[in-house]
Design a protein that fits this description.
Strand order of the largest sheet: 2-1-12
Number of strands: 12
Shape: globular
Radius of gyration: 30 Å
Number of domains: 3
Largest sheet: 3 strands, antiparallel
Number of helices: 12
Helix content: 40-55%
Length: 408
C-alpha cells in the first residue's frame, strides 16, 4: 500500500478527541496571545524554493554532505529507551510497545532509516515530521518530507491541522497524528531554522571553487585564461582557423581566451590566477572548517595531522556537544507527543553518549565532602545506588578486584 493510500485510509478512521485541551481553558491571557499568533500566520507552506535549494546543495556540496550524513548516522545509532516514572524514580521499561514501534516503524523502514531521515531533515531543513498511523496508539510511523507539509495555525490550540500534499492531492492531518520536530528559529513561530542557512555562503563558495577547478582542468589541459597575441600579416581565414584550433585544444567549457593580431612574435599573457596564486587549497579548507563548525563537527575528526589523543577528544566532543543535545531535543518531543498514547507517566531518553571520564584529581579532592551517589551523579552521569548514601571517601574511585561492583 502506498503512503498516499495509507494516509487516505488512516483519515477514514474515527479519531479520538485531541490530547491537549483548548488553551482558553488554561489561561485567558495565553489564549489571547495564541489568537494573535494564529491570526498573524496564515496557513503556512514552507518556502519550497529554499527547501529545493537546500536539497540541491546537499547533493552537490561534499562538505555539507559529510556534515549532515555524519550527524544523521551517528544519531541513528544511539538506542532510545523508555522509562516509567514512579515517585521521582526512573524504572526502565525494556521492550516497551513504544520501543517496539521504533524498531519496526513501518513495513519499509528500519529504526535506523527512520532516525537517519529524521535527523537528516532536521539538519538540512530545520524541520522533520512523523505521521502516526493507526487508531488510538499508533501502529506505524511514516516520515513526511518537510517540503510537502503545510501548517494550519489555530486560535485555540496553536496548531489546528497539518496538510500533506502529494501528487496534487491535499490530505488534512489531525494534529495528534503528526509529530513536528524542529530547531529553534528566531523569526518564525511555526517552522524551524536550518543550519544550512548559516552555512550557505561557505558551502556555495566552496562549490563555486570546485566548479572553477573542474573547468580549469577541462579538456585535459590546465591552461589559464589569457591573451594570445598572433604575429602580424595573418589573413582573416588563418586567424579564424588559429582561434578555432586553439579553443578546440585548450578552450574548455568556461575558459576565456582573447586573440590579438599585432606586431611581434606569438605571445601569451595570463589573465586569471592559478590555484597557487589564489591560495586555492587553503581557501577550500577554510570553507570546510566553517561548514563543519556550524554543524558541530570538531575539526579534529577529519584533521590528517591529528594525534590519536586529539582524535579521541574530538570524537567525544562530537558525541557530548553535538549529538547528545540533538538526541535530547528529539526524545523530549517523543515524551511529550508519542509516549502519552501509552500513559502519562512515561519518559523517553537516549543512551547517554557523553563521556563519563572525570578529572580524577578533582574527584579525589571532592570525595571527603560528598556521598557516593553525589559523586556518581556529578562526575560520572550515573544513577543513584542503594549503598550510595555513604561518604565517597570510603570507596575507591575505581573498583578493585576486592570490591567489584561497589566502586564509584
Amino acid at each position: 500500500m502506498s503512503l498516499l493510500s495509507r494516509l487516505t485510509h488512516a483519515l477514514k478512521l474515527t479519531r479520538s478527541p485531541r490530547l491537549d485541551p483548548p488553551i482558553s481553558d488554561r489561561d485567558p491571557h495565553l489564549a489571547q496571545l495564541v489568537k494573535l499568533i494564529a491570526d498573524h500566520n496564515a496557513p503556512l507552506w514552507p518556502r519550497l524554493d529554499m527547501y529545493n535549494a537546500q536539497a540541491d546543495e546537499y547533493t552537490r556540496s561534499s562538505w555539507l554532505y559529510v556534515a549532515v550524513t555524519r550527524i544523521a548516522e551517528a544519531a541513528a545509532m544511539v538506542p532510545i529507551n523508555t522509562y516509567r516514572m514512579d515517585g521521582g524514580k526512573r524504572i526502565a521499561m525494556p521492550d516497551h510497545p513504544l520501543e517496539r514501534l521504533l524498531r519496526a516503524p513501518n513495513p519499509t523502514l528500519s529504526q535506523f532509516e527512520l532516525l537517519e531521515a529524521t535527523f537528516g531533515f532536521l539538519e538540512l531543513h530545520g524541520n522533520a515530521y512523523w505521521y502516526l498511523a493507526g487508531d488510538g496508539a499508533p501502529s506505524e510511523i511514516w516520515p513526511l518530507r518537510p517540503d510537502r507539509v503545510r501548517i494550519v495555525p489555530d486560535r485555540t490550540h496553536y496548531v489546528g491541522a497539518y496538510v500533506y500534499m502529494l501528487d496534487g492531492v491535499e490530505i488534512p492531518l489531525h494534529p495528534d497524528e503528526v509529530i513536528h520536530f524542529k530547531r529553534w528559529h528566531p523569526k518564525d513561530d511555526y517552522f524551524g531554522l536550518s543550519a544550512l542557512e548559516a552555512a550557505a555562503m561557505a558551502s556555495q563558495t566552496d562549490r563555486a571553487m570546485a566548479n572553477w577547478n573542474r573547468n580549469f582542468f577541462d579538456v585535459g589541459k590546465a591552461i589559464p585564461a589569457g591573451i594570445l597575441t598572433i604575429k602580424s600579416m595573418v589573413s582573416d581565414a588563418d586567424f579564424e582557423r588559429i582561434k578555432r584550433e586553439w579553443l578546440e585544444s585548450y578552450g574548455g567549457t568556461q575558459r576565456k581566451t582573447a586573440f590579438i593580431r599585432g606586431t611581434g612574435e606569438i605571445g601569451w599573457q595570463n589573465l586569471g590566477l592559478s590555484q597557487q596564486e589564489s591560495d586555492f587549497l587553503e581557501a577550500r579548507r577554510l570553507n570546510r572548517d566553517e561548514v563543519f563548525q556550524i554543524f558541530g563537527l570538531p575539526l579534529g575528526l577529519y584533521d590528517k595531522n591529528a594525534t590519536q589523543a586529539n582524535a579521541t577528544v574530538a570524537r567525544q566532543t562530537f558525541l557530548s556537544d553535538t549529538i547528545y543535545p540533538k538526541l535530547t531535543r528529539f526524545t523530549q518531543k517523543l515524551t511529550l507527543q508519542l509516549a502519552p498514547f501509552w500513559g502519562s507517566d512515561l519518559l523517553v531518553m537516549p543512551d547517554d553518549v557523553r563521556g563519563n571520564e572525570a578529572d580524577l584529581a578533582e574527584v579525589q579532592a571532592a570525595r571527603a565532602f560528598m556521598t557516593i551517589n553525589e559523586v556518581r551523579a556529578r562526575y560520572f552521569n550515573l544513577e543513584a545506588v542503594a549503598w550510595g548514601d555513604a561518604s565517597a571517601e570510603t570507596i575507591p574511585v575505581m573498583p578493585s578486584p576486592h570490591n567489584a561492583g561497589q566502586g564509584i
